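Whiteboard transcription, Tuesday session. T.W. wrote the structure tokens on the left side:
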């Protein structure tokens, strides 16, 4: 009897520990019909239905941010999906958890509404006019009792249906950065946009370090044809096909002119002090650098050179990675829980290449 009571106590404690996600409910609303993508703005509402207050991080790819990140799943009735044309970031949840400017606290019963313009973030040309189902990402990061970021999933209350009438405008022009890469032409060295001379010097020091990271990573993968701690730590269970994938990815990062003749843009109007950098995946060779980049060391964990590795893996033309997990702890956990995502996670490649602390 005493034994079964203590089991009940343990079960209740486990439930309390995971209550934070279950106490968040997410709704989405928007127009039922549009004829121009410019009119496709949806609103997400996150409600705290629990008895305790919750502190959340306004992470760019969550429904709490209006950033043009990949925050929605969109499906045409045919099953096809529009093309994602928005931004992928390197973001520090560790810094964000300590930065009051990027936190929002919801009291019990309170809610927060955010508008998201989907024009520019998604291009519906490929999937065409007709009906779409829109569902926001339910992933959020809360700040837990220890003061660190913790992943939770909200309960999704509904999805939203919208239809594009025949002849609708399904895409907007690409952003300005797309033009700068075309102007770059045949230049054989880095192009800097809106970067002070101090910043140009900092980037110029990070470039050869990133090039070295790529060649060292590739040499390592070519030399290690069986399981190794370094591969397993960042990418999960070893297999020869995984090694082949990694070799292909790193080979693509070693193309002529990689890093050395790319464009570095220091304007970063979308960033905050938790953001290192971002890219448009289709805009090969243009990296936008943000606040957190400038205070990072040249090499080592979450360094400038490592940030260049992270961003360069996002390009569709290279590895086409996403951001499934940010930070060393989460990246290590991802390698165990979802190794197929780990080989497509930008921070996992960054940490593999930075190799700090050094693994055999
Ligand atoms: Zn990223």
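and on the right, the sequence the group agreed on:
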């Amino acid at each position: 009897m005493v034994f079964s009571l203590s089991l009940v106590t343990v079960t209740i404690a486990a439930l309390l520990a995971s209550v934070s996600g279950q106490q968040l409910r997410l709704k989405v609303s928007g127009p039922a019909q549009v004829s121009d993508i410019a009119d496709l703005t949806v609103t997400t509402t996150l409600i705290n239905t629990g008895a305790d207050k919750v502190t959340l991080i306004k992470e760019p790819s969550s429904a709490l941010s209006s950033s043009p990140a990949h925050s929605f799943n969109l499906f045409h009735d045919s099953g096809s999906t529009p093309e994602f044309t928005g931004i992928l970031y390197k973001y520090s949840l560790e810094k964000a958890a300590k930065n009051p400017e990027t936190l929002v606290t919801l009291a019990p019963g309170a809610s927060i509404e955010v508008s998201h313009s989907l024009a520019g973030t998604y291009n519906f040309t490929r999937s065409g006019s007709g009906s779409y189902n829109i569902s926001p990402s339910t992933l959020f990061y809360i700040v837990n009792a220890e003061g660190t970021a913790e992943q939770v999933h909200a309960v999704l209350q509904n999805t939203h249906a919208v239809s594009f009438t025949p002849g609708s405008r399904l895409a907007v022009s690409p952003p300005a950065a797309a033009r700068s890469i075309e102007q770059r032409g045949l230049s054989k060295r880095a192009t800097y946009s809106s970067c002070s001379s101090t910043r140009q010097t900092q980037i110029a020091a990070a470039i050869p370090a990133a090039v070295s990271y790529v060649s060292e990573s590739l040499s390592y993968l070519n030399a290690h044809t069986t399981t190794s701690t370094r591969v397993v730590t960042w990418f999960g269970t070893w297999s020869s096909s995984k090694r082949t994938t990694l070799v292909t990815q790193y080979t693509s990062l070693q193309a002529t002119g990689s890093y050395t003749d790319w464009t570095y843009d220091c304007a970063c109007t979308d960033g905050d002090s938790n953001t290192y950098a971002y890219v448009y995946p289709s805009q090969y060779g243009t990296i936008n650098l943000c606040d957190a980049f400038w205070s990072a060391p040249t090499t080592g964990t979450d360094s400038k050179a490592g940030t260049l590795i992270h961003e360069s893996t996002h390009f569709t033309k290279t590895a086409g990675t996403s951001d499934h997990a940010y930070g060393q702890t989460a990246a290590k956990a991802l390698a165990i829980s979802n190794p197929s995502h780990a080989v497509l996670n930008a921070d996992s490649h960054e940490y593999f290449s930075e190799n700090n602390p050094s693994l055999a």
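Someone added at the bottom: Confidence is low (pLDDT under 50) at residues 1-18, 178-184.
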